[in-house]
Amino acid sequence: MHQLSKSDKEWPGIGQRGRAFLKMHGLRNHFVIVDGRAQPFHPDRREIVAICDPQAGVGADQLVVIETPAPGSRKAGAVAFLRFYNVDGAEAEACGNATRCVGWLLLEERAVDTVLLETRNGVLECRRVGDRRVSCGMGQISMDWKSIPLSEERDTCHLRIGDGQLPDAVALNIGNPHVVFFVDDIDAFDLRKLAPPIQANALFPKQVNVGIAQMLGPDRMRLAVYERAAGLTEACGSGACVAAFAALARGLTDERQMTIEMPAGEVGIVISDDGMATMTGPVEYCFSGYLQDRFGGE
Predict the structure, then answer these.
(1) Burial of 192 from C-beta contacts in 10 A (0-12 / 13-18 / 19+)
(2) Residue 233 falls within a domain, yes or no?
(3) Would residue 1 count as lying in a domain?
(4) Of 146, 141, 164, 153, residue with least CA distance to 249
C-alpha cells in the first residue's frame, strides 16, 4: 500500500494514486501520454473526453497510449505501438507531433539515437537530432481519392469543394485525411469559420483536417490547420507534411526540403522522390501526474 509522504499529508487526497501519465507538447500541440505496455489501458470515449478536457481533466489536444507492438512489427524492430485519441474520443490514424514526443521518451528510455514505432500508418522511424529535437519518418503520402478517402472519384490536385472563399483544394492522406488550400495571405481568412462546413461536406466520410498555406519562397511557407475534433491548433505535424507535398503537386515549388512556419513555431519537412515525408522539430516535457480511478480504463 502507498505510504503517505510529508507532501501527501500536506495535500489531502494526493496519496490516492491512479494511472500515471506524462504531459508533453510539440510546438504547443499538447498530449497526455499513458504507458499501457505493462498494464493495458483502454479508456472509453467518455473517459477520453474527460481526460482531454482542460476543465474536467488534464487538458490535451490528444490522448496517446503506448502499447506493446504486434508480433510481426516487434520482429521487425518496433519497440512500441502508438494509439492516438482525439478530444471527442475517436481514434485518430496519425499525429506527427505526438509521434515525435513519444519518440523522444523512448529514445531516452532506451538510451539510443533511433527507435522504430508502430502506428496505424505503419512502422515509423524516430531519430534524435539534437537537444529535444526529433526527426520522424511520417510515411507515404497519397493523393488517391479512395485512400483519402473521398465519397466519390474526384481530381484531388484541384478538388472543387464549393464557391466560397476556399473553393480549390489539394486532398491528401498521410494516415489521416487532409485538404490544403493555397492562399496569398493566411491572415485574410477566418479558418475557425471556414473549416467546419468543409469538414462536414459529404465528400469526406471520415471528415478532414483543413489547412491554408501561404508560400513565402520556394523552400518556406506559412501554414494554419483546423484539425478534426481539436479545431484550430497552433501546430500540426501531419498537416505540415502534406502541405509541403501539396506545393510540389501543384508545381508551386521544386524544393523537396522545406521549412513550415506555424503559429507555435517551425518544423522542417523533407519529401523524398517516392512521396515519403520526414519531419524534424522540437518536443517539450510539461509535467507528470496520476489520472483518477475513473480514468483508469480496463
Answers:
(1) exposed
(2) yes
(3) no
(4) 141
CA atoms within 13 A on the CB side of 263: 14
Nearest to 243 by CA among 274, 219, 207: 219
CA distance 146 to 164: 25
The structural domain count of the chain equals 2
pTM: 0.86
For 47, residues 6+ apart whose C-beta sits below 8 A from its C-beta are 294, 295, 297
CA 293 to chain centre: 27
Model confidence over 141-188: pLDDT tens digits? Answer: 999 999 999 999 999 999 998 778 999 999 999 989 999 999 999 999
All three cell numbers of 72:
510481426
> In terms of residues, how long is the chain?
298
Whole-angstrom Cα distance, residue 22 to residue 298? 19
Distances, alpha carbon 28 to alpha carbons 111, 196, 214, 259, 264, in Å: 25, 22, 21, 18, 6
Please indicate, yes or no, whether residues 120 and 202 belong to a single structural domain of this protein: no
Range of the domain at 23: 6-132+283-295
> In a 3-state reduction of DSSP, which class is residue 71?
helix
Q: Give catalytic residues, as residue numbers.
A: 95, 236
Residues contacting residue 83 through CB under 8 Å, at least 6 positions apart = 64, 65, 67, 91
Question: How does pLDDT run across 188-218, given as a tens digit for each residue?
Answer: 999 999 999 999 999 999 999 999 999 999 9
